[in-house]
Amino acid sequence: AYARLPERRRARVQVVSSGNMFLEAALLLDEYLDVQLVSPKDYAKKLASGGARQDVVIFDGATPNDAPRAHAIYLDPRGPGSPVKVEGEIRSPGFDKIDRKHPIVRWTALDDVNIARGHKLVPQTGDKVVGASAEGPILVTGQRGGFKFVAIGFDPRDSDLPLRVAWPLLLLNSINFFTD
User: Fold this and answer.
1) SS3 label, residue 174
2) Nearest-angstrom CA–CA distance, 15 and 95
3) Using one digit for the tens of pLDDT, what is the confidence trace for 49-58?
4) Does the pTM of the predicted model rise above 0.85?
5) Could you tell me what percentage of the chain is helix, strand and coil, using 3-state DSSP and rounding each to the nearest 5?
6) How do residues 161-175 score in pLDDT, each as one tens digit?
């Protein structure tokens, strides 16, 4: 017996980062990702010049003032361009509550992830809290301007998440959630 699967198209992913080897390494695991790395400064220039269209933009500690015209993953979002309001710092948050049925956390084990510090995310009406600590939401997904987003309320480098199999799964599940 055999099954014929539809051909999968390559997803164009732009990573806006000052450098994050954990993020870059995780994205290398999927051969169907066309990854382009840009610095936050260069991203602003490309946006102003109407650069190439992307399927997904990943913001690593850099949040633009204007939302991208693409699906987006925000790692530790801040400022007025954040898709969710960010409140005070949380010391040693953990994933005390996880919506295990949500596709971005499929096949992940986040229960015992150790996080040094993060920020409480305040979702808007219609947003979905996928993961929360006792102090508040730290993983939120939703939609803004017709595009989906995932916001992670901590810098993964301030945790042991990048050292776990759950890290690339969380990223790749999120990209698949956007592009499927």
Assistant:
1) helix
2) 25
3) 566 689 999 9
4) yes
5) 20, 35, 45
6) 999 999 999 999 999
